Amino acid sequence: MTTKSVDLPHLRSVVLAAHAGAGKTTLAERLLFDAGAITRLGRVDDATASLDYEPEEQKRKQSLTLAVASLEHEGTRIQLVDTPGYADFGAEVVEGFAATDAAVLLIDASGGVEAGLESAVALARGNGRPALFFINKCDRENANPAAALDALRKAFGQKIAPLHVAIGSADSFTGYVDLLHRKAYQMQGGKEIEVAVPANLADEVAARRDQLLEAASEADDDVMTKYLEARRSPTRSSRRACTRPFDPAWWRRSWSAARRKTSAFGR
């Protein structure tokens, strides 16, 4: 198959990094599948994931080396670099950050901040890479997405702010609220459906949205002025500020649609 050339403004490279077992390879598989880069959705546990192609990786059901794949989204080619989570393979993670220009850092919603994530954050900051946190496995037993976000803010600073608020957790996890646009989505029949924002989340949505706008205002003086004046609905400038590298956090189930994630790197 011939790969068409792409100019530099439409090329992104993103490293996926986290503690072992956070779901990096599963996320990469979902992104590739939803973008049409692969035609079959593989699973790490079934030894069919596209990026775990080494026999030893398939046997152990874990990534042992750096792996690269690409997808296209809205005219932008995104190179995904999947890295191992175990400390024994730390050199691979270092290489991944050196070769890319942005990072997606995963956290297990049931596990909190672990050593592998701390190392990944240090590498992102040391290399000056904009980073986005992906709160994964929100439907897992004992998952607590809100606690995971609070743990990120406590460990790495108040500059980290949510783009989404989870609707439910563990067995009751059904979707999320988009804080920037004040819209809610749930998974129904394998599709993402817009729904009303749950009334019981009104206070949390308001508080988390303030966290988001405060972080965005630090990245853009125009947004800061508007935020201090009236805390108005998001303007074009505030939306632009929210895509700058202030370490936002996204909620997501490991299997859910990935099209909203890929768009962040297409701008």
Write the layout of secondary structure elements.
Elements: E1 11-17, H1 24-34, H2 55-60, E2 67-73, E3 76-82, H3 90-98, E4 102-108, H4 115-126, E5 131-136, H5 145-156, E6 161-162, E7 164-167, E8 175-178, E9 183-188, E10 191-195, H6 202-219, H7 221-229, H8 236-241, E11 248-251, H9 259-263
Parallel strand pairs: 1-3, 1-4, 4-5, 5-11, 6-11
Antiparallel strand pairs: 2-3, 7-8, 8-9, 9-10
Helix pairs in contact: 6-7
How does this model look, in words?
This protein has 267 residues and is α/β, with parallel strands linked by helices. It has 2 domains: 9-137, 3-Layer(aba) Sandwich (Rossmann fold); 149-253, P-loop containing nucleotide triphosphate hydrolases (Rossmann fold), CATH 3.40.50. Helices cover 33% and strands 22% of the residues. The protein contains 9 helices and 11 strands. It has helices spanning 24-34, 55-60, 90-98, 115-126, 145-156, 202-219, 221-229, 236-241, 259-263, and strands at residues 11-17, 67-73, 76-82, 102-108, 131-136, 161-162, 164-167, 175-178, 183-188, 191-195, 248-251. It has a 7-stranded mixed sheet with strand order 2-3-1-4-5-11-6, sandwiched between helices. The longest helix has 18 residues, at 202-219. The radius of gyration is 18 Å and the shape is globular. The two termini are 27 Å apart. Residues 251-267 have low confidence and may be disordered.
State the order of secondary-structure elements, H for helix, E for strand: EHHEEHEHEHEEEEEHHHEH
In CATH, the architecture of the largest domain is 3-Layer(aba) Sandwich
Distance between the termini: 27 Å
Number of contiguous helices: 9
Q: How many domains would you count in the coordinates?
A: 2
> CATH topology of the largest domain, anyone?
Rossmann fold
Give me the Rg, rounded.
Answer: 18 Å
**How would you classify the quaternary structure?**
single chain
Count of individual beta strands:
11
Overall pLDDT metric: 83
Report the helical percentage: 25-40%
Residue fraction in strands: 15-25%
Globally, the shape reads: globular
Sequence stretches where pLDDT stays below 50 over 5 or more residues: 251-267
